Amino acid sequence: MKDDSRFFFIPTLLTAMIVILAGCAAPVATQAPIELKVAPTEVPAPTEAPTATEVCKPVTLNVFTAASLMEAFKEMAPLYQESEPCTELAFNFAGSQKLSQQLRDGAPADVFASASGKNMVDVITAGLISDAGSQIFARNGLAVVVCPTSKFKIEEVRDLAQPGIKLVVAAKEVPVGDYTNQFLEKAADDPTLGQTFVDAVKANEVSFEADVKSVLAKVDICEGDAGIVYKSDAFTDKTEGIKSFLIPEALNILAKYPIAMIKASANAELAQKFIDFVLSDQGQQILEDNGFLKAK
Amino acid sequence: MTAFNYEPIEPGGHQHEKRNGQDPENLLGESTGTASERWTQRLWWLAALPMLVFFILPILSLFSYSSIGELLKSLGDPEVHRAIGVSLRTTFFSLLLIILFGTPLAYLLGRHRFPLHRVADALVSLPTVLPPSTAGIALLLALGRQSAIGGFLADIGLPLSFTAGAVVLAQVFIAAPYFITAAALGFASVDNELIQAAHLDGANSWQAFQYIVFPISKIALISGAVLSWSRALGEFGATIIFAGNFPGRTQTMPMAIYLGFENNLTNAVTLSIILILISFTALLAIKTLISRDLRN
User: Fold this and answer.
1) In this complex, which of B121, B138, B140 lies closest to A223 when CB atoms are compared?
2) Of the candidates B123, B133, B244, which has its C-beta nearest A13's C-beta?
3) Using a CB-CB distance cutoff of 8 angstroms, which residues of chain B are in contact with residue A171?
4) Pairing, β A243-246 against β A129-140
5) In chain B, which residues touch A (CB < 8 A)?
6) Which residues of A touch B138 (CB under 8 A)?
7) Which of A17, B13, B123, B262 lies 20 to 30 Å from A131 when distance is taken between CA atoms?
């Protein structure tokens, strides 16, 4: 095949397909890990004394964060940059188990914010966390999201056992997947639900996703009828018509999110400033606004 | 003077002509010509070494990760079993569909010039340049529950979501281009005069295909099939988005490796080694077939 001019068609067709897909796409699955670079906001030069206009070399802070913190941290970033204009925050969003593995494999990072103590402990055991250790900065619970056009009525925990429901959960290696199993264990001990309930729910599980946002995405586009995600995910999900309900406190878990500085961080002072910001009133309020419980 | 078996295809199929009645290549395929020719040979080898080592090193590392005993033990792990089972079952059906539906298209592309031929050609090659996750999202939107086709199938009791069928479709989408391209090339390489001669002798189109086209392009068809089967075996990105992850049903070997390697590296390594052995054997078989075919 000597005719090379046909290669014009590939980019043209690709562009056309991307445009078509973008036009028809509902909010779809985000693929872990997701990188977000937030550039420093411009500090306007004041008209009085030239004290504020410093020329600084922008420093990038690599923050490895659990996927569930996406909206909250994205909201924090510009506010943080107002106080630290020279810092550029680069987020790596993924399931905490993936981040823990990446850190142990030597990925460079400054801060690690995990959705589960287990993943943080693995990193501490590997000697990667600074001597200051980790602190709890947020808490979360589980909620159920329900697809807007599901033909099932799913309004309370009991409804999850209805035969034929497609329930999407996270894999047990993912913190929220582990929490889901803990919730089911509690349900098995509950006299009104019991083991039959748990068996029925497990029979409805159709997929074990690699992170909580994939669970959410599948329910958003109604591939699944329902999904078990974090309260914060249900809170911030803007999909039209999406329904959700909290799992009652007696059955729910309390996820405690630890944050810590990486020992090998080249920007220890700045990393600590970011951690302080997350723990500050402002940071805590942003977390609460995004559906999390404050640290205390 | 070439050290490898890449010979240009000449009309009539005669390759590898002998010079002065003597084959100038030794066992390694190296030219045993003059000293300067040998030095040039060695320089090429030196320049090629880094790339070769780069390919071999990761594979060797896999093999040297654990003892054979450990690896054999993990073969008994039900998770490993199920992943292998799902991979073999789904790729078998994928290959069947690819050959069944790909051959007519390949024949069309290879032997007929029609308007928009180039567009069709590019379209067929598109899945190979698309990121697998893009393919997954596209399939989800086209055949997921919310789509016209997917919704219809779900209504008549044949849902695609989260089934092995979805895995097969994802694999077909990604791997078919490899077969179709190879088959089209194979069909195109059949000399028109041969077919015309067959027609003159009274053969109809089907007989021409059976006795002329197919035997000549057989090797291309087989290599295309083996290549696309290997690609289907390794498919992951589109599958996890379109079909989800469920051990024993939709969790293929690559998926088990991706999700499991944080928890059970031995299992992941075992699965990786199996995949490498299968793919390598397949490629070796293809290369042998092709070179043998070229020598005839």
Assistant:
1) B140
2) B123
3) 245, 259
4) unpaired
5) 118-119, 121-123, 125-126, 129-130, 133-134, 136-138, 140-141, 144-146, 161-162, 188, 237, 240-241, 244-247, 250, 258-263
6) 17, 21
7) B262
Best B126, B153, B162, B189 member to test A by mutation, with max A CBs in 10 Å, is B162
How far apart (Å, rounded) are the C-alpha atoms in residues B187 and B191? 9
Q: What is the interface size between A and B, counted as CB pairs within 8 Å?
A: 98
Cβ pair A207:B261 closer than 8 A: no
The first and second tokens of residue A256, run together, are 């405690």
Q: What is the model's pTM?
A: 0.75
> Which chain B residue has its CA at the smallest distance from A210's CA?
B259
Question: What mean pLDDT do residues B69-88 have?
Answer: 87
ipTM score: 0.73
Would you write out chain A's pLDDT as a tens digit for each of its 296 residues?
444 445 555 555 555 555 444 444 433 433 444 445 544 444 444 444 444 455 678 889 999 999 999 999 999 999 998 888 888 999 999 989 999 999 999 999 999 999 999 999 999 999 999 888 899 999 999 999 999 888 899 999 999 999 999 999 999 888 999 999 999 999 999 999 999 999 999 999 999 998 899 999 999 989 999 999 999 999 988 888 899 999 998 999 999 999 999 999 999 989 999 999 999 999 999 999 999 998 88
**For residue B47, what are the contacts with CB-CB under 8 A and spacing of at least 6?**
none
**What tokens were used for B12?**
């009539």
Q: Which two tokens stand for residue B19?
A: 């010079």
Residue type present at position B208: A
Say how far apart CA A221 and CA B111 lie, in whole Å. 42
Candidates B82, B149, B240, B245, partner chain A, best to mutate (most A CBs within 10 A): B245
Q: Which helix (H) or strand (E) holds A284?
A: helix A281-289
Report pLDDT digits (tens) over B268-295.
Answer: 888 898 888 888 888 888 888 888 877 7
The per-residue b/e assignment along B186-209, b for 16 or more CB within 10 angstroms, e otherwise, is bbeebeeeebeebeeeebeeeebb
Nearest in space to A217 (alpha carbons), one of A231, A203, A238, A232: A238
CA angle A203, B90, A219 (to 5 degrees): 45
**Mean pLDDT (whole number) for B53-81:** 85
β-strand pairing of A87-94 with A59-66? parallel
* CB contact A21 to B (< 8 Å): yes
**CA A232 from centre of chain:** 9
Rounded average pLDDT over B2-24: 48
Strand order, beta sheet including A59-66: A34-38, A87-94, A59-66, A111-113, A255-262, A129-140, A293-294
Of the candidates B122, B144, B145, the beta carbon closest to that of A6 is on B122
- Do A225 and A146 form a contact (C-beta atoms < 8 A)? yes
